[in-house]
Description:
The longest helix is centred in the N-terminal third of the chain and has 23 residues, at 211-233. The chain has five domains: 5-69, no CATH class; 88-161, no CATH class; 196-316, Rossmann fold; 371-451 and 616-713, Rossmann fold (3-Layer(aba) Sandwich), CATH 3.40.50.300; 460-594, ABC transporter ATPase like fold (Up-down Bundle), CATH 1.20.1580.10. It is an alpha/beta fold. It has a six-stranded mixed beta sheet with strand order 11-14-15-9-16-17, with helices on both faces. Strands 8-7-10 form a three-stranded antiparallel beta sheet, covered by helices on one side. It is globular and about 90 Å long.
Amino acid sequence: MHMTEDAKRIIDDSIRAVLPDAAVYRALEGRRFDRPVTVIAIGKAAWRMANAAAKALGENLREGIVITKYGHSEGDIPRMTIYEAAVACWRGETMRKWKQQLVENASKFGFPIHTPFHELTPEQKRLLWRGNEYFHGLDEFFEYIDSERRKIQFRVMKARYTGKTACPECGGSRLRKEALYVRVGGKTIADLVAMPVDSLIAFFAGLELDEHDTKTASRILVEIRNRLQYLADVGLGYLTLDRLSSTLSGGESQRINLSTSLGSNLTGSLYILDEPSIGLHPRDTNRLIGVLKQLRDLGNTVIVVEHEEEVIRAADWIVDIGPKAGYNGGEVVFSGTLPQLLKSKKSLTADYLTGRREIAVPATARGWSNSITVKGARENNLRNVDVRIPLGVMTCITGVSGSGKSSLAKGILYPALRRLLYDTGVKPGDFDGLTGDVQLLKSVEMVDQNPIGKSSRSNPVTYIKAYDEIRKLFSDQPYAQHNGLGASAFSFNIAGGRCEECQGEGMIKVSMQFMADVELVCEACGGRRFRDEVLEVKYRGKSIYDVLEMTVDDAIAFFGEESKKNATCRRIVERLQPLQDVGLGYIKLGQSSSTLSGGESQRVKLASFLTKDSAQGGVMFIFDEPTTGLHFHDISKLLAAFNALIQRGHTIVVVEHNMDIIKCADWIVDLGPEAGTAGGRVVFEGTPRELEKCTESHTGKFLRMRAKIMKNEK
């Protein structure tokens, strides 16, 4: 490769420099290039150098300069060949001899040293580990490292490159060799469990056995075929049977249990399902409905807690609870059939089903000019795809269940950006790199549905930092100052002001040896969580306990009355307002985080970002199924919160199946066309209106159908 004198001088100066990034900056500052330049950084120091190059080039970035940055030295660049040092531990001056041995002898046994690592066959990759008579493989290399562990540099190297890999003995099958000698239809049990359910159904449908085996296995085959079909019917045809249960989503686990129930053929049973459509694409929702009707037709009663429109429309009887959430709900607004519901004027659900209310598409589309691109994504079923993510707008990653959406967003995009921006986090999945305007991003946040706090004393108002201001307000009261009660006295997490009998929880858990634990109201504080002295401090007639018992809506009204006169009250309202904006005005300030649903926890996290300094732009927020557990009315509030973040200069990336979210997005990345091995490709990239015209996309089809249904209802 030809190297200019300038480039050679920059590299030489950087190698010799104490601060190589500073040397790069000095060398490039104010320079202009007449053609695109690619800076490839490997390792932590080199990554800093690439950052310095980006800063030094400044305006030149708009002249076609491309900065390609790869994270740690721990991660290989998948497109590298063995010759180019794809094996990270053989890159150093000392360890290079191990690679050289392979390079010099590769022609003797036909090993492709100039083929990118990810294109090597499984057998060639295994050979790289095992070695042969011509070269020592990685297994021997690490044995050598172990033998030299008395030296600190070797112990560090082993720790650096130690991780999980497939067992060389069983190849990841987890079975003895003897078990793998048995074959049915030419396949071992390891081969079968590694196949997607849909492929297994086809395999057993076409399985031909001799007379003896047919007679022996007839009953077993019936059960196998039925149970596999049940899995496919609930939309899990893309799963493999060797998939670990810990990797399944809540919706997938629930649907597996549902298929188990189908297989049992029980009658006269009551089934209660909570949001079974979680994670399901509309294409698969109809299959789920078919399964639920099948359970009903067997003589069972099926009760479903659901927000999905298709499931609601398919129900025989609908009970609508409301009219709103929290203290504004809890009443039976409607009970009857779908035609009767559509005539109801009191139900918010009916309003959205009939089109009297709707989540409107933005009047004007948001434009964008900057973007990042994930290059060569190959994690799980992704097929070496390039995906473009615009910055400063809302991007929706769609596709049928199992098409590769989570692999892209959670497996590659999020960890890769964390590695790049923070130099920390888990290793991203298999991909080539990130290109584009990465330097415009300051941070990346994954907003999932995990609980916001592990402690039973954790609550939403603490999470959004509003409680700090409330404690300050009470500590400023004359009675508190007279008795020396500071802000810490109004915390139930610190000894001093809290009730020590119950540790500020208000309840005491009594362990029962052979029964479930019993919770009793604390006798010392009567469930009020604080000492009497602290509860004597009042603000406008309300104690700290009274304030914590308020809903967000009540608290905003209470403190809002004094917000013009009192700066602390104004800050409390400002911090509480985002909770109301995301539709959580009904929750109590002191409500334990453990009582919040996944969707509520996710919205509390969203509210915490809305409370932060509005000037802080350049953050990418990644949401995974944020509409889980949300009513149509709540989705409209969620979209308003997304818009507020975008207006502050942030980027929203959403993995979603909900058509209301999809139609309001600025950019769509649709993966598929199917699930598992038949998915993992980019079917469509563009705007929602363009997606409606895409005939290859299942999402586009349902987007068109949804628009047609709403038009007819109106």
